[in-house]
Structures are given as C-alpha cells and as structure tokens.
Amino acid sequence: MSSANLIRVALGAYLLIFFSYLLGPLVVMSLTAFNSSSFPTVSPWACFSFEWFDVLFNDKHIRDGIYYSIVIGIGTVILSVSMGLAASIVLTQVWPKLRSTYYTMIIAPILIPGVVLGISTLVFWDRAGALLGATDGSFLHGLFHNGIFLTILGQSSFIASYAMLVFVARLQRFDTGLTEAALDLGATHTQAFRKILLPFMRPAIASASVLAFLASFENYNTTTFTIIDYKTLTTVLAQKVRLGINPSISSLAFIIIVLTIFAALAFEAANRNKERKLAVQQGKVSANKSGVLPGFMTGNPAAILLVLLAFVVIVLVGTAQKYSPEACKVQVREAKQIEIQQRIKELREARRIKDEARAAEEAEQPAQAPANAPQNSGAFGNVFAPGNLSEEEAPKPDPAPSSGTGAFGNVFDPNNLNSE
Amino acid sequence: MSSGVAVDLENITIRFGDFTAVKDANVNINGGDFFSFLGPSGCGKTTILRAVSGFLEPSEGRVLIGGNDMAGIGPNKRPTALIFQNLALFPLMKVWENISFSMEVAGASAAERRKRADELLDMIALGGQGDKLPSELSGGQKQRVAIARALCANPDVLLLDEPLSALDLKLRQHMRTELREIQQRVGITFIYITHDQGEALTMSDNVAVMKAGVIDQIDTGHNIYDDPATPFVASFVGENNVFRGKVKSISGNEAVITTNRSGDLLSRITPAQVGKLAVGDDAMMFIRPEALELAPRDADSKTTISANVINEEFEGNSFSVFLQGDGGKQIKMSVPNLGQDRISVRGENLSLRYDASNAVTMPAGELASE
Ligand SMILES: Nc1ncnc2c1ncn2[C@@H]1O[C@H](COP(=O)(O)OP(=O)(O)O)[C@@H](O)[C@H]1O
Ligand SMILES: [Mg+2]
Which stretches make up the ABC transporter domain (chain B) (predicted)? Predict the structure, then answer.
C-alpha cells in the first residue's frame, strides 16, 4: 500500500472516529427515546414505542421548566442584546486610552464562574432591596426575590458580554462616515442611529439574540442559585437525574435535536436563496436554474443528509399517530413470563432433586437436618439473581409472576443474604 | 442664477492635541463661487472642510456662512452638504432612498421623496435606476448619486472632498465638466477639495493652495499659475524649473540673480513678493518648461541658460528635452511638435532663452516634494 493511500485511510478513520465521537451520543440518545424499556437504553431493545413522548408531554415539571426557560430566555435576549449593543457602541466612542481598560471590564463577566455570578446576583439584589427600604411583602421586595427577575439579571450579566463581542466584530466594519453623512443631511442623532446604524447591525442583533437565547436556555450554574422557587428546564433535569431518569428525557433531547436540524436547514436555505437572488440581480446566474435539487443542496452532502434525516423524522411523526406498541409490549411481556415460568420450573425441578437428595441424606444422618434449612434459601437467592434483573427491565412490574414470587417471596428480602 | 451664500473663515486654527493641522487660515469665498482648496495629501484640506460642515469646531477663529457665525451649530443644522471622500452612500438603501434621505429625516412622504429623487436622477442622467442598490452602480454613477443626494438637501453651500479621486482618468475629466455645469445650473457655492492641480485650475473661480496647514496663496487659477506667491506654489502647481541664486540687483519689479551655473539671470519679481526682496537675499527663480526656447546666437546673456542635454522624450504634441541643471536638478524644456524630427542630440550643449516676463523670482523657500 502506498503511503498516500495509508494517509487517506488514516484520515478516513480519524474522521469516522471524530464524527462518531461528536454525533454518536446524540444518535444513541435519540434511539433510547423510542425504546419502551423504562431505563434509557438501546440494548436490549424491547419495543419501538412513542410512549416516552407522552410521558414527556404529561410531565408537569418539564412543561413548567420549558415554559420558564423560554420566558427567561426571551427576557435575557431583550436585556443582554440591548446592554451588549450599548456597551459595544460606547466602546467605539470611548477615549482610545481608556478603551482596553473598558474592554477588560466589560468582558470580565465571561471569565467569572457562573456560580459566583449567581450567588452575587442573589446577594446584591437582596441588599439593594434592603437599602431601598423594601419591606417584606412590598412590591420591590417581591421583585428582588423573584426567581425569574433574578435569573434574567444574573444570566444577562455575562450573556451581555457575549452579545457585545458579536456587536464589536460587526461594528469594526462600520464606516462612521455613514453616520456623519446622515447628520450632514439633517438627521438627528436618534435618526442616524435608527436609520443607519441599527439596520447595519441587524444581522449581528439576530445572531446575538440566538446566541443569548441558547446560552440562557442551557444555563445551569447561575440559574440554580437565582431561580429560587421557580424552575427551568435545566434545573428540572438536574433534579430528575438525581432521582433517576427515564427515556422521556431522551425524547426531549430528540425533539431539541430535530428542531435544531430544521432551524439549521431553514437558515441555510434562506441564505442560499438570498445569495442566489443577489447573483441573479447582478446578472451572473440565469434566473431559471435547471436541475432537480434546490440550489442550497447542490454540492453539499451535509445538507442532503440533513434533509434525509428530516424526512425520517416526518415519517416517524406520521407513524406515531397510527402505530401502537401495545401488541409488541404484550408479546415482550408474554415472552418474559414464559421465560420466568421456565425458570421457575427449572428451579422447582432443581429443588425437587435436592429435596430428594436431602431426604436420602437425612435418612442416613437425621441429626443434621435443622442446620440445612437456611442453606437452601441462600441457594435460591443466588439462583434467582438474573431473574431479578430482568424483572427490573420490564416496563411495568407485572403481577403475573406473583404466583412464583409468592413461593419465593422471602428470596427478595435483603436480610436473607445477611442471615447467612 | 441666484447669488449664493458667502463663506468666510476668519483666523481659523485647528489643533489635534499638540499637532496643528490648520494654522491661521483666512479665506473669503464669494456666494455662488466654485472655490477649491488645493494641496498635497495630509495638508489639512479635509480638516478645513469638516470645520465648515460642523463636524469639528476650530480651536481658534470663526466660520461664517452667509455672515452668520456657525459656532455651536451642529452639522445637521448647517446649510451645508458634504460629499465625502469615500462618498459614504448608505449601502442598505436603494439609490432613490439614498438621494431623498434628507427629505425622509425631515418627514416628507414617500411619494414626495420618490418624485424628487426621480427628478434628480434624471438630472444626473441615471433615470430609471432608482431601485438599484449603490453596490450595483459603477464608480461614476455612485459619484453622481452622491452629488444628487447632497443637492436634494437644498444646501446653500456644497462641500466636495476629493470626489473624483477614485475615478479613472477619462471619467475624471468628464466629471470635471459635469460638476462645473451642475454648479452653474444650481448657482450655489461649491467648496471643492483636491490634490490634483488640473482639477483645481479647470473648474474653480478661485483656488487656495495649502501646504502643511498653511494657506500660501488664494487667487484665480490663472494667477496662481503665472504669479505663484511662494516657491511651494510655484513648484506644486504645474511643472516648473527652479534656479537658486543670490539677488544681484533690483530695479522696480525686476531682479537679477546670480546663479552658480548659469551666471546672472533676469526675471520679474512675483507680484506677491514685490518689495520683500533685497539685494544679497537668497532667491529662487522659476521658468516653466514651455517658456524656454532654443536661443539664437546673439541672445542676451541675462536671459539665456546653457546646459548639456541628458535626454529627449517625444510626447506627441511636444518634445520634452531634459538638461543638466543646478544642484542635480534637471531642467525641462517643452518644444511644440511642429514637424521637427528631433530637437537635440544627447550630450550636446544647448543655449536656451526665455522672456524675462515669463520668469518669476521670489525669496528662497521650501519646494513641493515630487
Ligand atoms: N481626528 C484627528 N486626530 C488627529 N490628527 C488628525 C485628525 N484628523 C486629521 N488629522 C491630521 O491632520 C492632518 C491633515 O489631515 P487632513 O485634513 O485629513 O488632510 P488632507 O489634506 O489630506 O485632507 C493630517 O496630518 C492628519 O493626520
Ligand atoms: Mg482629505
């Protein structure tokens, strides 16, 4: 094999590993959302099912969490985008010697741990309320101890810095001559800002808003301190992880992934469309382009892949209306019961053989009989261990094997082992 | 033609920190004039214009527009419109929106604005292009849109900051005549900035020549070319041959200077410097290349120069002959092409003569760097 080939293979392997590292967890997580098993897992695969989406939509905590996450996200977008815009404009106006100091100060919140921001927000507004003489029960006191209000402030304190970075990058390309031209033509400063600078900043405002919303939506460190008696999606999830999770979280992740893909696709399509329009306007490309693929997909395998994925999702959502996993679940349950019963039979058989053997022994040495009894239950406990696991895997503990359980009820007693 | 509004700069000094960008400028611009500031890049032309349009306040002195002191009046309140060096068209607005921007901020309706914009577009020969974006126009078209946008504001004074510098030569020459025509049609005061002396001379009623923040001369283009006030003006405006020497004698407005190489030379004292030159002073004499000609045998030695030919170039309408001059500088003679094969051979010693009225002498000073 030539070294060029070797390099190509190595590169391919690297890319494969890299992308499985990036996307593997997402794929696995998405799959677990469709497994009826009560624990997020792919193997063993029980039944293809949409029940976890139902569970998700019926979970009031998650619903509330999403609702407040969105409310806080919107508040944070409004506050941090306006603060970031103002800060970036000041940066261009401030005396050059002060600029780097000012920049450092404005950027500092990004470097401060979110936990510290959370706690200090909490403490600061409590103190501020006290200083302003807000007594318990007054509006101000209520506001300064309101989880949503505090979370928006706390998150904005550093998200505004991110927004500012986006704005500074855009502002660097702004020709201040345009503002001067507007003033020269009789515009007031407000008009110049509204009609010249703001339209120029619009793309940056859009990306800063998306960035701010996402940063707010996924924030935990700061939120966990400032949210107080409310909850956001992140805090709900954190709580759930502590108490043990089920695949409804996977289904939430799946929904988020799909939404992201669709947003990315829409964005890409809009972009390509705009570019093409411009090209057509400038007469570079003929308006009626031939070919089956929409313009934005040509020469972009990732886009094609995304479209396929989107198609799969649409099919999934379509079948979700009709497909019922009940039949499959009943099957799985029956299979499990049969397996359990088989086990029980085998165990009975084993016991019978042992009993017979013991009876034979007892006949020979009757004096040892009392000592053997506890040993038996111990033996059962060990034998039954695998069955124990499989029972946990069943979607809902089924009363069916209770006939067996009754017989071996004592086996599940943890003291059973200790007693040995 | 309306009489237009006068602009006066009274003892304007403009400093940026320790750096003085404009020093004690006094300029009176008549209403309806096409007035140019001419000077090399970085001499403070834009700075003066920004003081007139209100983007900066002079450190000292006053700006008067139509006799009114403009101190404390912002750019959006002054009756001026500025055409920026880089045009500063609004990239996100259509051409017609650009042109009618001044009406938009004044609260005019869209229909009114569109109507006026279309009128102006017709005037600048861009009718029907109002719905394009500035990025879809060519350089010359952008230029005209910028002019239309400024004119739409109905200014009393139009300020133009090197508006043609970005255009190619042909277009530049075309736009010169067009600008002059527009100015005569609208009859308002134009203040024009350029580092191109050709532009200044062809278009302007009056020209101010600037050097490093100082105005050296204000006069008509013709006078500036014929009677430069300082060595800087003489060497910056048009081509000129310089001869350095000491004043030997003065009679009336004529002087004889003694040069190292060409002996005694007679010339006029430039009008601005009459009476300021004394015998024994260091002086500079300037003769234009086209004022030199081959000397007949019996020519007066006080108006002849003899030098060796270095090189000759054929320029179509003329021949340029380069000769060995004083202090390493070449002397250039321009001879009209009247069908001669050539004027000289390399290395040949030539006698050149000139008319004393075509040569000017002034106290020695700084020359414009080439
Ligand atoms: N805002 C400013 N701060 C400091 N120096 C300036 C400023 N504006 C202009 N200058 C200086 O003033 C001088 C004249 O500039 P300008 O008027 O733009 O020259 P020009 O004649 O080329 O238009 C230049 O040396 C420039 O560096
Ligand atoms: Mg300039």
Answer: 7-237
The CATH number assigned to the domain holding B260 equals 2.40.50.100
Domain that residue B200 falls in:
7-226
Domain boundaries defined on chain A = 26-58+249-275+301-324, 60-246
**Tokens standing for B250?**
């003065």
Measured distance between the N- and C-terminal CA atoms of chain A, rounded to whole angstroms:
64
Nearest CA in chain B to A201: B92
> B154 at the A interface (CB within 8 A)?
no
Q: What is the C-alpha separation between A254 and A312, in angstroms, rounded? A: 13
Contact B365/A at CB under 8 A: no
Among B9, B12, B14, B19, name the best residue to mutate to test ligand 1's pocket (greatest count of ligand atoms within 8 A of Cβ): B19
**pTM of the shown model:** 0.72
- Return per-residue pLDDT of chain B as tens, 370 residues: 456 889 999 999 999 999 999 999 999 999 999 999 999 999 999 999 999 999 999 999 999 999 999 999 999 999 999 999 889 999 999 999 999 999 999 999 999 999 999 999 998 888 889 999 999 998 889 988 999 999 999 999 999 999 888 788 888 888 888 888 889 888 899 999 999 988 899 889 999 999 999 999 999 999 999 999 999 999 999 999 999 999 999 988 899 999 888 889 999 999 998 888 899 999 999 999 999 998 887 777 788 888 889 999 998 999 999 998 766 678 999 999 998 888 888 888 888 999 999 999 999 999 988 6
Helix axes B169-186, B139-152, angle to 10 degrees: 20
Which ligand 1 atom minimizes the distance to the CA of B41?
Answer: 22
Ligand 1 close to Cβ of residue B45 (< 6 A):
yes
CATH architecture of A60-246: Orthogonal Bundle (1.10)
Q: Do A183 and B82 touch (CB under 8 A)?
A: no
Q: CA–CA separation, B263 vs A90, rounded Å?
A: 66
3-state helix, strand, coil in chain A (%, to 5): 80, 0, 20
Indicate if B151 and B114 belong to the same structural domain.
yes
B300 to chain A, any CB pair closer than 8 A? The answer is no
Q: How much is the ipTM here? A: 0.83
User: Are B309 and B171 within one domain?
Assistant: no
> B203 and B105 share a domain?
yes
